[in-house]
Amino acid sequence: MMDSIYVTTKVELKKIELTTKNMESSRFINICFLVFCASLIIPTRSHSYSHVALFIFGDSLYDVGNNNYLKNALARVNIKPYGETFFKYPTGRASDGRLIPDFVAEFAKLPLIPPYLQPGNRQFINGVNFASGGAGALVETNQRRVIDLKTQLRNFKNMEKQLIREKHGVAEVKTLLSKAVYIFSIGSNDYFVPFATNSTVLQSYSQEEYVKMVIGNITAVIQEIYKIGGRKFGLSKLTALGCDPALRALKLATTGGSGCMDEATMLAKLHNIALPEVLKELESHLKGFTYSIFDFYTTADERLNNPSKYGFKEVKMACCGSGPYRGSFTCGLKGYQVCDNVSEYLYFDAVHPTEKANYQFAKLMWKGSTQVVKPYNLKTLFEI
């Protein structure tokens, strides 16, 4: 499709005889006439990309429904009571309501960004959500039951081709992708799954080697998106994974001890040290590369240690689930329990925050100070 539509008009100029007295007014009329003619040939675009699109990658913290359409999905949460706080029905979001990317879209004055696999979804101008519940940066994490990060990248490339093929020119798509913001929530499952499944994978690598593989896969995907045109990236550090209700319950079951599973949290800490270093390295080598890192670890930890300060009463037990800490993945399934007042809880189910918590995190990601998000917050990424 052509980049612009030109409107052409044949104008027949009649001879105008002027007297000396009306020469000045004639000059004025001629100037106005020329301006009018010029306006007729100014190109008008079929689409406006003055706004900034939002493209979303990652796991269940960001998945708004892709797993609903995935055969043999590991984590499919399109059952009640998921979604009941805001949507009043289950949408495939792993929360009682909206997720972090939903709020980011709202702050950016964008509509809710739809899942890539949603049937009939061809409205890519505002962005697309590629995230999949249970996904990891490593292909092996929950393999064949999720859309891993590498496959999410492939879906993104297919979307770019589709944009060009169906409705838009190469130049317009390049502009759209260069202005867009790309946000990621990935890595948690790579560290969580070995503990939850009693896998021996962590015996094959040192902690540092394993983290390096996870980080390497993330940065490889970012570099591929950069090659296609992406320039602005938002990522998050990981929370203290061992303090999720699921791993608290697992520690209790396996060791009889209470508290957080420190081994899982240690991997998250190593990840959080490595991530800023590699992003800074990318910035030094990739022209125009800009990024934001949200300190998810510190902000979540503050709520674990000072719940009342942030409006929470319960931060160890999930609102929905069963067993110790309601830490089993049974929310919405037979025998589950659900709390009376979800707004009092930090966790909705075994590992996922409530809508209230998601809003607080998203707000900090959007316009938080450099104490929690740096070198830029997401609002700045949308503006530059």
N to C succession of SSEs: HEHEHHEHHEHHEHEEHEH
Helix percentage range: 25-40%
Shape type = globular
Strand content: 5-15%
- Give the rounded overall mean pLDDT: 89
Largest sheet: 6 strands, mixed
N→C terminal distance: 28 Å
Number of helices: 11
Radius of gyration: 26 Å
CATH class of the domain at 54-243 and 263-305 and 354-383: Alpha Beta
Oligomer: single chain
Using the coordinates shown, work out and report the CATH topology of the domain at 54-243 and 263-305 and 354-383.
Answer: Rossmann fold
Family: Belongs to the 'GDSL' lipolytic enzyme family.
GO molecular function: lipase activity
Protein name: GDSL esterase/lipase 1-like
Keywords: Signal
What does this protein structure show overall?
By secondary structure, the protein is of the alpha/beta class. It has a domain of 263 residues: Rossmann fold (3-Layer(aba) Sandwich). Helix content is 39%, strand content 8%. The chain has a 6-stranded mixed sheet, sandwiched between helices. It has a two-stranded antiparallel ribbon with strand order 6-7. Helix 6 packs parallel to helix 8. The longest helix is centred in the last third of the chain and has 24 residues. It is globular. The two termini are 28 Å apart. The relative contact order is 0.12. The N terminus is likely disordered. GO terms for molecular function: lipase activity. InterPro entries: GDSL (IPR001087), GLIP1-5/GLL25 (IPR044552), SGNH_hydro_sf (IPR036514), SGNH_plant_lipase-like (IPR035669). Belongs to the 'GDSL' lipolytic enzyme family. Keywords: Signal. It comes from Populus trichocarpa (Western balsam poplar).
